[in-house]
Amino acid sequence: MAGILFIISAPSGSGKSTLVNEVRRLVQGLEFSISYTTRQPRGSEENGKEYWFTTKPEFERMISAGEFLEYATVFGKNYYGTAMSALDDARTHGHDLLLDIDVQGALQVMKKVPEAVSIFILPPSPQILEKRLRNRSQAEGVTDEGVIEARLSQARTELKHLSDYKYALVNDVLDQAASEMRAIVLKARGENGETFVLAASCETMAHSERLDAALASFGLG
Ligand code: ADP
Ligand code: 5GP
């Protein structure tokens, strides 16, 4: 089976990019949709690789022209959006497509494409999330306390939408989380056996022990 749409959301710093890169190494035929954004490139990011970096007027022209499948203002600051053409191209070629988008965008896509497979990635605890955010900021030479605080508080807000997602993955040990995401992709493609059981254990409704422990650490659940 091909042409499946996967929606991945996670609070910033949860390790989503790291996990998605790992899964794309493990599973063949998973295309990654490159979003448009009005934010500035960070660190070693390149135009056309992580994002299409664009200006606010150009982004607003694309909104008016109806060129987005979804878009949102993220962290109350910059626009981020998925071009309709990314989905159209994947469908034309029968490819599975992975969208790495925030909760606001994910809710829009779930409405438009109800059969999409949605996955929420959680950090194991707010303490670990803070540590990852700080490590990443240091590595990129940015140490803006305000940004870290805003992202931690945003994480709690986003976690409240967890039950809208079919699957929930706790990114504590990278290899384990990557195996789980691989299993979810293979199950959506119709594979049975071990991967099916592993994927089913990651359903949000299944409330695994790891999921409940992560939620409790955020004061939720
Ligand atoms: P996101 O894409 O969710 O914003 P990143 O993939 O940039 O997050 O990861 C944030 C930081 O956490 C990076 O420094 C990354 O190396 C680290 N990281 C990601 N996954 C793990 C993990 N499972 N264990 C430890 N560190 C991790
Ligand atoms: P970052 O600036 O750290 O790369 O991403 C910030 C947030 O924007 C992340 O939660 C990411 O998932 C989200 N994001 C990236 N691309 C898109 C997009 O096309 N649409 C929406 N709605 N969110 C996006």
Question: What does this molecule look like?
Answer:
By secondary structure, the chain is of the alpha/beta class. The protein has a domain of 151 residues: Rossmann fold. It is 46% helix and 19% strand. A five-stranded parallel β-sheet has the order 2-7-1-8-9, with helices on both faces. It has a four-stranded mixed β-sheet with strand order 4-3-6-5. Strand 5 and strand 6 form a beta hairpin. The radius of gyration is 17 Å and the shape is globular. The mean pLDDT is 93. The site of guanosine-5'-monophosphate has 14 residues, from strand 5, strand 6 and helix 4.
List keywords for this structure.
5-stranded parallel β-sheet, binds adenosine-5'-diphosphate, 9 helices, single chain, 221 residues, 4-stranded mixed β-sheet, Rossmann fold, binds guanosine-5'-monophosphate
Secondary structure layout:
Layout: E1 5-9, H1 16-26, E2 30-32, E3 35-37, E4 51-53, H2 56-64, E5 68-74, E6 78-83, H3 84-93, E7 96-100, H4 103-112, E8 117-122, H5 126-139, H6 145-159, E9 167-170, H7 174-188, H8 194-201, H9 209-217
The structure holds adenosine-5'-diphosphate and guanosine-5'-monophosphate.
Strand content: 15-25%
Helix content: 40-55%
- Basic shape: globular
What's the average pLDDT? 93
- What is the fourth-level CATH superfamily of the domain at 5-33 and 96-217? P-loop containing nucleotide triphosphate hydrolases
The ligands found in this model are:
adenosine-5'-diphosphate, guanosine-5'-monophosphate
Number of helical elements = 9
What is the highest CATH level, the class of the domain at 5-33 and 96-217? Answer: Alpha Beta
Low-pLDDT ranges: none
Distance between the termini: 35 Å
Count of DSSP E strands? 9
CATH architecture of the domain at 5-33 and 96-217: 3-Layer(aba) Sandwich
Major sheet characteristics: 5 strands, parallel
Q: Structural class per helix/strand content?
A: alpha/beta
Strand order of the largest sheet: 2-7-1-8-9
Radius of gyration: 17 Å
